[in-house]
Amino acid sequence: MPHIMELFGKTRVVIENGKIIEVGEPVADWCPVFSKVASVSRLTKEEAKKNMEYRIKELGMFTPNRRFDHGVFVNFGASEIMMTALRRGLIDTTVTVCDGAGTVITSNPDLVQGMGALMSGLIETEPIPEIIEGIELRGGTVLDRESAGIDQAGGLRKACELGYERIAVSVVGTDDAGELRAIEKEHNIDLILIGAHLTGIQHAKAEGFIKEMDIVTGCASKIVRHMVKPVLQVGTSVPMFAMTQMGKELLCERAKEVESPVLINTMRLPVLPEHKQPRLIG
């Protein structure tokens, strides 16, 4: 089974034995994040391939040489938010994903960031023993060592079994949110859901998904930007929206660790300057 990840405007990239064997077409042609950090003026399949090759070379993604020491990539990314929340005691553990391992439960903030710093939409992966071992050596629990399955609901149940009560879960699949909230009620825990990789989300599913989230990223989705009614927003080009008081607390706590100056103001949200928004194709 190959590895599949979506990145760079939701371009589908297939990796096998550490090599890229297939690259799809992006659904967006400009992203302010990659324009800033990688000087990419237009998202293309060629640029997506180059970026994935960079991740494989520099971080060892999808290979036995996987590194977990990457620092902050963006100030308010999902992994950065969870890293800070763990450090500052707002949550007990996280349920996230990693290439070569699938769903991972961990309370190690450095591991959360190391796995997630350059992680885009991981769709499918297969077990890589060296990656699994590296995660476990750093205090992570791999939900399915045999198949490296991605199962956030299963990961949440496992976290509950391990005795955790304040749990943050990264959510990509729009069908997972309801089940995760049901598990929260069943186990009487405090659950924080962070929705990511939402470029291309369908209108019919977006409203219900957003209602279940504590934090949601705008990605390149016009639908998300149109539907959100946030209580706090960070960023204006690819913003993170806090939808609940708990989400607001996590974003505010993250702001305390951001080294660059931070502006705090009150105004009607969302704030979305047209010239800063990602451009979808079509």
**Class inferred from helices and paired strands:** alpha+beta
Helix content: 25-40%
What series of H and E elements makes up the topology? EEEEHHHEEHEHEHEHEHEHEEHE
Radius of gyration: 18 Å
Sheet having the most strands: 8 strands, mixed
In whole angstroms, the N-to-C terminal distance is 32 Å
Q: Any low-confidence stretches, pLDDT <50, length ≥5?
A: none
- Note the total helix count: 10
Strand content: 15-25%
Give average pLDDT, whole number. 93
Protein name: Putative methanogenesis marker protein 8
InterPro entries: Methan_mark_8
What's this entry about, in short?
With 282 residues, the chain is of the alpha+beta class. It is built from ten helices and 14 strands.
Properties at a glance:
eight-stranded mixed beta sheet; 282 residues; 21% strand; 14 strands; globular; single chain; alpha+beta
